[in-house]
């Protein structure tokens, strides 16, 4: 369990750093051209490494714990903006960081180690169908969708990838995970999440986008894990876990809308020498 939590925590740090990199990069170019920027490519590589670490965590921990830890990446965004960009930090931001840490401790205590179990019959087909539908909606919204809609679609994409990964882990070993049909859902949902996120960052505030992502990526996978995939809460820990989830989401929202997040988004891009 300790190693799985550590993997999730390192993934959260990587996601936070990547978010700042992508937010800055998408001010340099627009549309699909932005994806080819070196800073975006580096951020996506970092995202990939973080995602692999999240798979390690998902193999041993329930979705509601892993996703809550990953949502705490917004803590990294705020702290990075303060240290690197000298961004202002409110007292409520400091309090929110403390709340996030305490909430994650409660979530970890209420779950324990839970190896992924085999998903129910029809799960694979449902996930693949959902991923195709998400791809269609994302393609339509990419052209004229609002930042809020794109952020929601991005959150659903990353949520779908996490749900499919948890189900895939329950089906077989690592090789079986890669070769099984759920890999299609993981890849499609992940691609939708990345493209919608980049488009949202191009059009909207990084803070508000991070807030929408935090809520979506915790609530949706957490609910599916508990209802469909057999994730459970330790006996007697239902109330602490519920309070921890609410506290973590609220604190992440506060941090996502922090001036430090806005500073990270609006970081000046160094001009090329004449």
TrEMBL record:
Listed transmembrane segments: 6-26, 38-58, 64-85, 94-111, 123-142, 149-168, 174-198, 210-230, 236-256
Domain of life, source organism: Bacteria
Keywords: Membrane, Transmembrane, Transmembrane helix
PANTHER family: CONSERVED INTEGRAL MEMBRANE ALANINE VALINE AND LEUCINE RICH PROTEIN-RELATED (PTHR40761:SF1)
Protein name per the record: Integral membrane protein
Protein species of origin: Sanguibacter keddieii (strain ATCC 51767 / DSM 10542 / NCFB 3025 / ST-74)
């Amino acid at each position: 369990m300790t190693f799985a939590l550590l993997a999730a925590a390192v993934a959260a740090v990587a996601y936070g750093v990547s978010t700042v990199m992508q937010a800055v990069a998408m001010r340099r170019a627009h549309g699909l051209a932005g994806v080819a920027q070196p800073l975006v490519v580096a951020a996506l590589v970092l995202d990939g490494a973080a995602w692999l670490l999240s798979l390690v965590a998902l193999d041993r921990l329930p979705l509601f714990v892993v996703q809550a830890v990953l949502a705490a990446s917004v803590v990294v965004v705020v702290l990075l903006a303060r240290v690197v960009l000298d961004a202002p930090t409110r007292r409520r931001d400091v309090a929110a960081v403390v709340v996030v840490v305490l909430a994650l401790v409660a979530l970890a205590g209420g779950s324990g180690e839970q190896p992924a179990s085999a998903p129910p019959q029809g799960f694979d087909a449902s996930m693949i169908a959902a991923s195709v539908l998400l791809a269609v909606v994302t393609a339509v919204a990419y052209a004229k969708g609002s930042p809020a809609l794109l952020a929601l679609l991005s959150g659903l994409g990353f949520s779908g990838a996490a749900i499919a990964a948890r189900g895939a882990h329950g089906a077989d070993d690592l090789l079986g995970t890669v070769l099984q049909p759920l890999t299609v859902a993981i890849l499609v949902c992940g691609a939708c999440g990345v493209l919608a996120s980049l488009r949202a960052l191009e059009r909207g505030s990084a803070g508000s986008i991070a807030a929408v992502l935090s809520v979506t990526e915790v609530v949706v996978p957490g609910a599916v894990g508990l209802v469909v995939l057999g994730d459970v809460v330790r006996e007697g820990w239902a109330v602490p876990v519920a309070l921890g989830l609410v506290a973590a989401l609220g604190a992440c929202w506060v941090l996502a809308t922090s001036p430090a997040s806005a500073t990270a988004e609006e970081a000046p891009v160094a001009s090329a020498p004449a």
